[in-house]
Amino acid sequence: MKALYFILIAAVVVSCQNQGKMEIEKAKLATVDSMKVEIEKQRVIDSMQVEMAKIEETKIETQKEVVVVNKPSATTTTTTTTQKKGWSSTAKGAVIGAGVGAATGAIISKKKVQGAIIGGVAGAGIGAGTGAIIDGSKKE
Fold it and tell me: Which residues lie across from 67 on neighbouring strands?
């Protein structure tokens, strides 16, 4: 009977030691995984900062000043060249409206393709109208 108790206690001690090692391994793996996630987040942030720097650089390049000196009259003229920025609000509204309308039409309708087409056309119209209103208010 004493031998049985001794074997039972030895088994409990050995299993507890194995549990501790397994928990340590799990903790190590969790730490490594969280570090990988943080590294990935930092990589994304760094790439976004690089892209933002490129955008700022292109903005600076588009706003160069040109100095023209006319020798006989000795006057100086400065002109600034600017490029038009991307899409108008009307175009953006039409594209966004078409996407949202198509998705909504496909979800709601029993005939998915037909619903997506109708929703896309309706969404594009509404989005273009909204964008035109925004463009009009920006001009004022």
Answer: 78
The backbone torsions φ and ψ at residue 77, rounded to the nearest 5 degrees and listed phi first, read -120, 135
pTM for the model:
0.39
- DSSP H helical ranges for 63-139: 89-108, 112-139
Q: Are 91 and 69 in contact (CB under 8 A)?
A: no
CB 106 within 8 A of CB 115: yes
The CA dihedral of 96, 102, 104, 106, to the nearest 10 degrees, is -160
**Consecutive H or E run containing 77:** strand 75-80
pLDDT digits (tens, 9 = 90+) for 2-38: 888 888 888 777 776 666 667 778 888 888 888 888 8
Q: How many CB atoms lie within 10 A of CB 101?
A: 23
101: nearest Cα among 79, 82, 123, 85: 123
How far, in Å, CA of 123 to CA of 87, rounded?
Answer: 18
Closest CA to 59 of 89, 90, 81, 91: 81
